[in-house]
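Recall that a protein's primary structure is simply its ordered list of amino acids. Everything else, from secondary elements to tertiary packing, is in principle encoded there. The following example makes that idea concrete.
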Amino acid sequence: MTAQDTAKKPKNSRRFLLIGLAIALVAIVTFGITMLVINMMERKSEQEIPRHDVVALDETTVDPAVWGQNFPAQYEAFKRTSEMEPTVHAGSTRVEHEPTADDPREFVSSSRVEEDPRLTVMWDGYAFAVDYRHARGHEYMLLDQRTTRRVTEFDQPGTCLNCHASMPAVYAEAGDGDIEAGFHAINKMDYEEATVMADQPIACIDCHDPETMNLRVTRPALVEGLKQLKASEGIEDYDVNRDATIEEMRTYVCAQCHVEYYFAGEDKTLTFPWSEGIEIDQIWEYYQKDGHIDFTHATTEAEIVKAQHPEFDIWSNGVHADAGVTCADCHMSYTRQGAQKVTDHHIRSPLLDINQSCGTCHSDDEETMYNRVITIQDRYVDSRDKALDALVDLIESIEVAMEDGTPEEYIDLAREYQNKASFYIDYTYSENSYGFHAPDYEQRLISQSLDYERMGQLALRGVSAEELKASEVTTNNLNAALRVTGEAKTSG
């Protein structure tokens, strides 16, 4: 053996050793992946165990208790929406109530107009100034509507029922089997006539197909609203039940009710103002073109657009929407029952279950996440309160001006700013997240309301609308901030 051969031997040995180790490593990794796949397939097969229905379900099955025989876990969680659990800023505080023949409730939630008298000033002349309480869980939505003074002391259309009762069967009955016809028939009814047709608050059938259990939109108003919204984005002939993804449906079923809306025309048709877009300036432009007003302010005689509860609208302009996080991800988080992943139908604030709701995406501990949310809400409340104070000041100033001989054209212009200031602050006040659904966006709403209140005060001093237009710098910066929409905006 030559010296050269001797040198090659150790090299060959190392080469064979490395090859052997590589083969062994590949074998181990392959085995691990194989076992993981087998485990995943076993889990998947467990999740796909065929349903063994106890009862048959169809479009006439409204009572959730019947659905609960097939889906006991979901039903037991759904029943817990009767629980009243306040959070720092929201939720419902249990208040004892003396039952009467017309109002059998033994307890209610606390009154927001009693807690904040500024609301009675903002809505003076409108039913919300008389009775407006913190929202309770879905279990109470029909009962609370039937007993609110906004219904018992004011004439209301059947349209109000659309978001406070289980409606597919009601629509079918009112329309002789035609859902669309039934929707329009209910809208045109008096509330007292319409409500006797409803048996349940929101139920399983409002969001699920009884044959497939797939999520679906059952409210014609949202079907049409999304069609118009998508058209404004260049998407023609959009049909939510045909075109939406499963993940999108986990938001859209909530958007059937948690939205900005109004009653259009003499028929009081439930309408979502999205044909210009879903950003607040676009919604305001829609109302201006439509000419819609909700009430005439009793003190100032200003014509006012009342915002409703635009959770979906505001969420759509927030970071969670951009990240693809749905309503259900936070408010109906997944739970585990053995190998099965089940949506928790105990619909409530994520603050009451932070680990399950927020912890799915965020790695911070529960205390850190809780404090982060409360900080956002605290800052929102502080800013919101300043805008509400300024709005009250403007209303009082207009009242004084009406008595001291201020020129009518000054007052008229101030009324226009009151309407706009009121709508922008009401829009965020009536939304139930206390600034959390879209913190940056909601702070902008507040700052704009403050600016319109400032303009209203200056208008009473004779400053013209032309003089009150935003500076060129402000306008350019606003256009830059809204470049994503592709639309130039002007302030004022």
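Residues 278 and 313 are 6 Å apart (CA to CA). The chain has two domains: 64-363, 367-485.
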